[in-house]
Design brief:
The protein is of the alpha/beta class and about 400 residues long. It has 18 helices and 6 strands. The protein folds into 3 domains: about 90 residues, no CATH class; about 230 residues, 3-Layer(aba) Sandwich (Rossmann fold); about 90 residues, Helicase, Ruva Protein, domain 3 (Orthogonal Bundle).
Length: about 400
């Protein structure tokens, strides 16, 4: 199958999946891209200057049908789009299709309330991304929001959840990127992927680019083990982040030049990066990420909140004192606490299947109530004995020292 046909197939598949999930606006975008590519392929035409613009009237009946489904489908949260989301119209359509398939996340379900504590990080992200979308007239001039934030801290402390919650609060397009997503064995393609990523983010603005494990993508330059290809990718990433800052300056100029001084509708592109190794990040990237926020291990109150959040779908026995359990979990990360709750909640199932063959288990599946018995204090004791913290004290100390030197709230 040729590359053009593969690109069309990828777009059609993504469009079908989006429509099945009730995301009709996203589905329209994918199908429009597939139609445009198909028309160009069948006529052997090069993409014109306005490639990607929908053909007036070509898909009007179909679009109206999809809009009707959005209104009448009855799915919670699914609404008919007033217009299709803009799509990437540049020359690298194949790379764009790969990025859309792999990293564009629409409608993340994580909310601020799902995250225990971390109020300082929530404040920084609200001021940088959420509030400028709600009150753009205020965030101008010296109050212009920052365009880049770095979240750093031990693994499993909630950095990715913070990114998803920020995207949910603004309903912006969420690009979830890691170094493996942008890696390519072909010379020059990784730089192109970075360039296309930022072009797509600008086309689909307001948007957020979340770069997880950014230290793998943009470690310090000039080291003895640095490859030329890696250096080129870092340079392209830094250039594109500079472009985001330049676009912000143009927005401010446009607001100042408008007759009433009101800014145009915000089309922010926000860069959020996360790392477990902030000391490995290139200093040029560190400078571009103006806010550098430490995401620590949860304290006593946050651990109690995490236990309550993780156990809200199961019954807890009266003999369980969650405050006492939280005190025993000092040094545990959020992920560690989630794993511990899962292990404790599975003990009822373990007692149910103990000593039974697969056939006996299947024959007793009518007694599902036994599988859902309340989680007891003994279940937590067993889980705590088996599951130890995953973060060392030395790692915490190193993060706190870096915070004192480079932290920025």
């Amino acid at each position: 199958m040729g590359s053009e046909a593969q690109s069309i197939l990828v777009a059609v598949t993504a469009g079908r999946d989006s429509a099945t999930n009730g995301e009709y606006g996203v589905s329209v975008t994918y199908y429009e891209g597939a139609l445009d590519n198909l028309k160009r392929w069948m006529t052997h035409e090069d993409p014109p200057g306005n490639a990607g613009a929908p053909n007036p009237g070509y898909d009007k009946p179909w679009r109206q049908n999809m809009a009707g489904k959005g209104n009448a489908g009855g799915q919670k949260g699914a609404a008919a789009p007033s217009a299709a989301k803009p799509q990437y119209t540049g020359p690298d359509q194949e790379l764009a299709a790969m990025l859309e398939r792999d990293i564009v996340a629409q409608g993340t379900s994580v909310k601020w309330a799902d995250i225990a504590g971390l109020e300082e990080a929530k404040r920084v992200l609200s001021e940088a991304l959420v509030l400028p979308m709600i009150m753009p007239g205020f965030f101008t001039g010296i109050r212009a929001p920052v365009k880049g934030v770095l979240l750093f801290g031990p693994p499993g402390t909630g950095k990715t959840m913070l990114a998803k919650a920020a995207a949910t609060e603004t309903s912006c397009t969420f690009f979830n990127v890691s170094s493996s997503t942008l890696a390519s064995k072909y010379r020059g393609e990784s730089e192109r992927m970075v360039r296309v990523l930022f072009d797509m983010a600008r086309d689909m603005a307001p948007s957020m680019i979340f770069i997880d494990e950014v230290d793998s993508l943009c470690s310090q330059r000039g080291t003895s083990n640095e490859h030329e290809a890696s250096r080129r990718v870092k340079t392209e990433l830094l250039t594109q982040i500079d472009g985001v800052h330049g676009a912000a300056e143009k927005e401010k100029d446009a607001a100042a030049a408008s007759p009433d001084g009101e800014p145009p509708p915000p089309r922010h592109v926000f860069v959020l990066a996360a790392t477990n190794f902030p000391w490995d990040i290139d200093e040029a990237l560190r400078r571009r990420l103006e806010k550098r926020v430490y995401i620590p291990l949860p304290g006593q109150e946050q651990r109690l909140q995490l236990l309550q959040i993780r156990l809200k779908e199961v019954d807890v026995a009266p003999d369980v004192n969650l405050e006492a359990v939280a005190r025993q979990l000092e040094g545990y990360s959020g992920d560690d606490i989630s794993n511990l709750c899962r292990d404790a909640a599975l003990n009822g199932m373990r007692r149910f299947v103990a000593g039974k063959s697969p056939a006996e288990i299947k024959a007793n599946m009518g007694n599902l109530g036994q599988l859902k018995e309340p989680v007891t204090a003994e279940d937590f004791k067993q889980a705590i004995r088996k599951i130890n913290p995953s973060v060392s004290k030395e790692d915490i100390k190193r993060h706190e020292e870096w915070l004192k030197v480079f932290g920025s709230l």
